[in-house]
C-alpha cells in the first residue's frame, strides 16, 4: 500500500483562518497608525497657525478683521483647507479683545474628543458646541460637532 502525504482540508482551513485573523489585525493596526499620523500632523499645523497668527498680530491691540482669507494672504497658512481632514476651518474673534479662535466644524465624535485634548501652553481655552466647561463631555456621538480652540 502506498503512503499518502500532504495536508488535509481541515489543516488548510485552519491555516487560512489564522491568515485571515492576522490580515484583519494588520488592517486595523494600519488604521490606528494612520489616524495617529494625521493627528500628529494636524496638531503641529494647528500650533503653527496659532503661533504665526500671534506673531502677525503682535503689534496690534486686537484680532479684529481676522479671517482665513487674510491669514492666507499674509502667508500664515498655505490655503483655506483645514489642517484636520474632513473638517471645516474658520477663525473668529470677539471684537476689541486680544484673543482669537480657530474653529473646526463638521467633526465626528472621535475627532471632537481628540481636539479637546490639545490643552497646550499656547491654548487659552477650548469650547465644544458653545460650552467651555468640561468640553469633551459636550461632544455629540450621533451628530456633527464644532470645536473652537482659543488663543491669547
Describe this structure in words.
Helices cover 41% and strands 16% of the residues. By secondary structure, the chain is α+β, with helices and mostly antiparallel strands. It has a single domain, classed as TcpA-like pilin, CATH 3.30.1690.10. The N and C termini lie far apart (88 Å).
Task: Offer a quick outline of the entry.
With 152 residues, this protein is α+β, with helices and mostly antiparallel strands. The chain is built from three helices and four strands.
Jot down its keywords.
alpha+beta; 4-stranded antiparallel sheet; 3 helices; 4 strands
List the helices and strands and how they pair.
Blueprint: H1 9-56, H2 68-74, E1 88-93, E2 100-107, H3 109-115, E3 125-128, E4 145-151
Antiparallel strand pairs: 1-2, 2-4, 3-4
Largest sheet: 4 strands, antiparallel
Mean pLDDT: 88
Number of helices: 3
User: How are strands sequenced across the largest beta sheet?
Assistant: 1-2-4-3
CATH topology: TcpA-like pilin
Q: Structural class of the helices, strands and pairings?
A: alpha+beta
Amino acid at each position: 500500500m502506498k503512503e499518502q502525504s500532504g495536508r488535509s482540508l481541515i489543516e488548510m482551513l485552519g491555516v487560512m483562518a489564522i491568515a485571515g485573523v492576522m490580515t484583519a489585525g494588520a488592517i486595523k493596526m494600519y488604521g490606528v497608525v494612520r489616524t495617529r499620523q494625521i493627528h500628529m500632523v494636524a496638531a503641529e499645523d494647528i500650533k503653527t497657525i496659532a503661533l504665526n497668527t500671534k506673531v502677525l498680530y503682535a503689534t496690534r491691540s486686537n484680532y479684529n478683521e481676522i479671517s482665513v482669507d487674510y491669514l492666507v494672504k499674509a502667508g500664515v497658512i498655505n490655503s483655506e483647507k483645514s489642517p484636520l481632514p474632513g473638517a471645516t476651518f474658520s477663525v473668529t474673534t470677539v471684537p476689541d479683545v486680544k484673543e482669537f479662535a480657530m474653529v473646526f466644524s463638521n467633526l465626528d465624535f472621535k475627532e471632537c474628543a481628540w481636539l479637546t485634548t490639545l490643552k497646550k501652553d499656547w491654548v487659552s481655552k477650548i469650547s465644544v458646541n458653545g460650552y467651555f466647561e468640561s468640553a469633551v463631555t459636550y461632544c455629540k456621538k450621533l451628530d456633527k460637532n464644532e470645536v473652537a480652540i482659543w488663543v491669547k
